[in-house]
Design a protein that fits this description.
Layout (H helix, E strand, L loop, with lengths): L12 E11 L5 E11 L2 E2 L4 E8 L7 H9 L3 E6 L17 H13 L4 E10 L1 H12 L4 E7 L11 E2 L2 E2 L1 H15 L3 H12 L26 H12 L25 E6 L5 H11 L7 E6 L9 E2 L2 E2 L8 H15 L11 E6 L12 E2 L2 E6 L7 E8 L5 E2 L9 E6 L57 E4 L7 E15 L5 E10 L9 E11 L18 E14 L4 E7 L25 E6 L7 E7 L5
Parallel strand pairs: 4-5, 4-6, 6-7, 7-10, 10-11, 11-14, 13-15
Antiparallel strand pairs: 1-2, 2-3, 2-5, 8-9, 12-13, 14-16, 17-18, 17-27, 19-26, 20-25, 21-24, 21-26, 21-27, 22-23, 22-25
Helix pairs in contact: 2-3, 4-5, 4-6
Length: about 625
């Protein structure tokens, strides 16, 4: 391509044409705000590269992006999805016209007199999934894509994980959308109160086994979003047509060949999905495919995640500087190093002193690394075995018979503390809700101020949490790659859940006298879906099943003196709905059973976690 000079950002003012009616192929107008470089209040003559963002959240929300890119010499088009037109409606929960509308929008933009014919598409979360629908539609004018923490399959995490329902995030989302659509003042007032204080309106916070039934909660004030919640809560099979959408996993083999950059974080909503996309596309596309993985949660905008800070090196300004550099290189030909070097740029967490910073967060530290494959070259899959005495050992167990049993009661679930979801409780977060669980990296200690916690004790003190950990490490140990738990389990119930959580246990220091147990990644499986989301199959009480449970990837340096810990239980509420253990339909009222769940760890059934261990320097 012909290289173009980088424009001086101060050289351009901005003019905006709002509410442009871009025609779709069936004549439907797609409402669009167009930001153009200007001087002295008038658009600059000439042709510029164009950027497109399509959104269900209302295009005005991204006006700052429009101004930013227009000042840097781009035409920026912000466009509403047709079924939203500035108000979040989404009548089918998922986009219905994203492939054809996205195609038509790209081609219209490429043909305008102020366009040089090269269009880049970017988006975050749902906006990014719209970009993926465009990639599947393959409009000729699309020349580059930048996708920020977006999923692949709508029925995967965080909506559902291995059959279990992502309750807290879906309830918050449905309440938020119901509130935005409310027109009558009295309805809006009630929904505002429910969004701010859901435990006052939903019995499930007092009785976790209580399902939301149509017409019985405040969600009935918004029948559409009540139906959305119930459908997600009760539709577990990934093959159900409810989950199908263009640009998802079934379409990835036909995504067009243009440069594409994916961005996510170890605590992001869609960490695994982005590794899946990179692995599928990088061998097939001739164009550059890049993946950037930071310490972030879904917001990607601070040096901290949850209660942990990762230091100034962690902040590389993905939203502004890196996004601009990507499009400057792929649309203008300005070499910024974005399409050269390793295909994966990832943040290796760890190395900090474990003390508290000025904001009250634990200093975990970290540094950036690069690799072309995942896991990185030189990684060994190392099993760490569960032992009856609660240790996590490198040697397999020798006992003929050994197992640990705990009782899982759906009426008293293990509370959610941290994980792969955004920090809705941040004071500076626009949609803050204090009743939501605290996401990201957290000391594994309950918080009695939260409605789902009964106390503020460490989760490890609960009788329904099995803890297996190494002795303090004698040397640093680095892991980078996918995690896998291989467990032999049994239950007295016809269906139940098993959860696992990998934890980096910092030793005690003056700031944290009891140490700091930092969650890295976790996972859950609903046992009827142990063989995959497409083959539900209840279990036989008392029968032992070998279970392979994939866990999101991570990259972490366990420092000398730290412990590697694996927590096993059967609940993670309210992030995940509780399994009633009765084997009946999911997400509906039913009898509640207490289950005695067993993890086996003997020479015949050596339950373990497989860690991707990076070889030490010089080894």
């Amino acid at each position: 391509m012909t290289s173009q000079p980088r424009p001086d950002a101060s050289a351009y003012d901005v003019v905006v044409e709002r509410g442009v009616r871009v025609p779709a192929r069936d004549g439907t107008p797609l409402l669009t705000d167009i930001f153009r470089p200007a001087r002295d209040g008038r658009a600059v003559e000439g042709r510029f590269p164009v950027l497109l963002c399509r959104t269900p959240y209302g295009r005005a929300r991204w006006s700052e992006d429009g101004v930013f890119f227009a000042r840097h010499g781009y035409v920026m088009a912000l466009q509403d999805w047709r079924q939203t037109q500035g108000n979040y409606d989404m009548s089918l929960y998922k986009p219905r016209f994203e492939d054809t509308d996205g195609y038509d929008a790209v081609e219209w933009l490429a043909a305008q007199p102020w366009s040089n014919g090269r269009v880049g598409a970017w988006g975050h979360s749902a906006n990014g999934q719209a970009v993926q629908s465009i990639l599947a539609a393959a409009p000729p004018g699309l020349a580059s894509a930048f996708v920020i923490d977006s999923g692949l399959d709508y029925g995967a995490y965080p909506a559902r994980q291995n059959g279990a329902f992502g309750l807290a995030m879906r309830l918050r989302h449905c309440l938020k959308m119901a509130l935005q659509l409310a027109e009558e003042p009295h309805v809006r007032k009630v929904l505002e109160d429910a969004y701010a204080d859901a435990p006052k309106y939903f019995a499930l916070f007092r009785r976790p086994q209580a399902a939301i039934v149509k017409g019985t909660t405040v969600l009935a004030l918004s029948p559409h979003w009540e139906e959305r919640y119930i459908r997600i809560a009760t539709t577990a099979d990934l093959d159900d047509p409810f989950w199908k959408v263009s640009g998802a996993g079934d379409d990835i083999d036909r995504w067009m060949d243009v440069p594409v950059c994916f961005v996510t974080g170890w605590y992001g909503n869609h960490a695994s999905a982005n590794f899946q996309k990179y692995r599928a596309l990088s061998p097939r596309l001739k164009s550059p495919v890049r993946l950037v993985v930071g310490h972030w949660d879904h917001t990607l905008d601070t040096t901290h995640t949850g209660g942990v800070d990762f230091g100034p090196a962690s902040d590389i300004d993905m939203f502004w500087k890196q996004r601009l550099r990507w499009f400057d290189e792929t649309l203008r030909g300005i070499d910024g190093g974005e399409t050269t070097g390793p295909g994966i740029r990832y943040f290796l967490m760890g190395g900090g002193d474990g003390r508290v910073n000025a904001d009250g967060r634990m200093r975990h530290g970290g540094r950036w690394e690069g690799a072309d494959t995942w896991p990185p070259p030189g990684v060994r899959a190392v099993p760490f075995y569960l032992r009856a005495d609660g240790t996590l050992a490198a040697d397999p167990p020798a006992a003929e018979h050994s197992a640990t049993t705990f009782t899982y009661d759906p009426r008293d679930p293990v509370p959610t503390v941290g994980g792969n979801f955004m920090e809705f409780t941040r004071p500076d977060f626009a949609s803050r809700v204090d009743w939501m669980p605290e996401g990201g990296a957290r000391d594994q200690r309950a918080n009695a101020k939260k409605p789902h916690c009964r106390d503020s004790l460490p989760l490890a003190t609960r009788e329904d949490v099995l803890v297996f950990q190494t002795p303090p490490l004698g040397a640093d140990l680095t892991v980078a790659g996918e995690l896998l738990a291989r467990l032999w389990v049994s239950s007295t119930a016809p269906d139940t859940d098993f959860t696992v959580k990998l934890v980096d246990v910092h030793p005690p220091n003056p700031d944290f006298p009891e140490g700091f147990a930092m969650n890295l990644q976790d996972a859950v499986v609903r046992m009827r879906y142990r063989n995959g989301r497409r083959t539900p199959d209840l279990i036989e009480p008392g029968t032992v099943y070998e279970l392979e449970l994939p866990i999101h990837s991570t990259a972490n340096l366990f420092r000398k003196g730290h412990r590697i810990r694996l927590d096993i239980s059967s609940s993670n509420f309210p992030r995940i709905d509780v399994n009633l253990n009765n084997g009946g339909p999911l997400g509906v009222p039913g009898p509640v059973r207490t289950a005695d769940n067993t993890v086996h760890h003997d020479r015949h059934r050596p339950s373990h976690i497989v860690l991707p261990v990076v070889a030490a320097a010089g080894a």
